[in-house]
Amino acid sequence: MTDSLPKPRARRLLVSIHDVGPLFEPEVDRLRALLTRHIPEDRIAMLVVPNHWGKAAITPGSPFADRLRNWADRGTELFVHGWFHQDNVIHKGRVDRFKARHMTASEGEFLGLSEAAAIERMAAGRALIEDISGRPAAGFVAPAWLYGPGALAAVASLGFTVCEDHMKVWSPASGRILCRGPVITWASRSRARIASSLAGAFLLRNALRGAGVVRLAVHPGDTREPSLLDSIERTVAALAAAREPIRYRDLAAAPAGNAFHSNAPIPDSRLRPARRGAV
């Protein structure tokens, strides 16, 4: 990466790879190779799925677990990213049914879980990642960034340092919003989604030029579409040339008055919505 212009101190960049696990190991390697052409490897967060779709369990002592430990040893943040990454709940509410059907391909695992079920999976995922890495998990990110009331109550109860959704990063323990703004990401499920995500990436990397923090997230499925990889490359290069890549923990540790923070806590109704019946 070559850039002779100084980066404004308040301009930061968060980069993450989702769906990390043995099921998509070659795709994750390809994404890491692309991103590290522009971003130091210890500034690329890895969102780890303990047993993707129930087909690819990560076990301590396995070759993939050794890779996770090696990445963590070199400074990579490891997040808990669900457990199965699969939504097998029958959603009763119209809004949740819409989210489950249209915002993800039945992968919004934590959209309909009760608080007890969400706590069980989150705690198990955190224990696994911490056992493998020898370090505290960096935080929790729900698959497809979808949280139901039970999941929001669970992340607060378990005291994760950092959580994020499509529009913000926050501290569950304090309710403090750490940064706001849409995440730049891509979709590969259909030609229409590919086209819209290409347009969205172009628009967002320009529209967010003045934002204190910009987030960028990539997925294994992106590697199947050359146009998405080209868009990712151009977007990362443009953002990294003007911004300082940071870790999520840097964002969480920054003073509340920092330029890219919002000091206002998330309203309690958004963190812990009125409970529905367990589903």
CATH level-3 fold name: TIM Barrel
Rg over C-alpha atoms, rounded to the nearest angstrom:
18 Å
| H and E string | EHEEEHEHHHEEEHEHEHH
Estimate what percentage of residues fall within beta strands: 5-15%
Domain module tally: 1
Helix content: 25-40%
Q: Could you tell me how far the N terminus lies from the C terminus, measured between alpha carbons in angstroms?
A: 49 Å
Mean pLDDT: 85
Number of strands: 10
Q: What is the assembly state of the chains in this entry? A: single chain
The DSSP helix count reads 9
Largest sheet, if any? 5 strands, parallel
Which features would summarize this protein structure in a list?
279 residues; alpha/beta; TIM Barrel; three-stranded antiparallel beta sheet; 9 helices; 10 strands; disordered N terminus
Describe the structure.
The protein has helices spanning 25-35, 63-73, 94-103, 115-133, 149-158, 191-207, 226-242, 248-253, 268-271; strands at residues 12-20, 44-48, 51-52, 56-57, 78-80, 163-164, 168-170, 177-180, 213-218, 244-245. The strands form 3 sheets. Strands 1, 2, 5, 9 and 10 form a 5-stranded parallel beta sheet that branches. It has a 3-stranded antiparallel beta sheet with strand order 6-7-8, with no helix packed on it. It has a two-stranded antiparallel ribbon with strand order 3-4. The chain starts with 11 loop residues before the first strand and ends in an 8-residue tail after the last helix. Residues 1-8, 95-100 and 261-279 have low confidence and may be disordered. The protein is α/β, with parallel strands linked by helices and 279 residues long. It is built from 9 helices and 10 strands. The chain is globular and about 40 Å long. It has a single domain (12-265), classed as TIM Barrel (Alpha-Beta Barrel). Helix 6 (191-207) runs parallel beside helix 7.
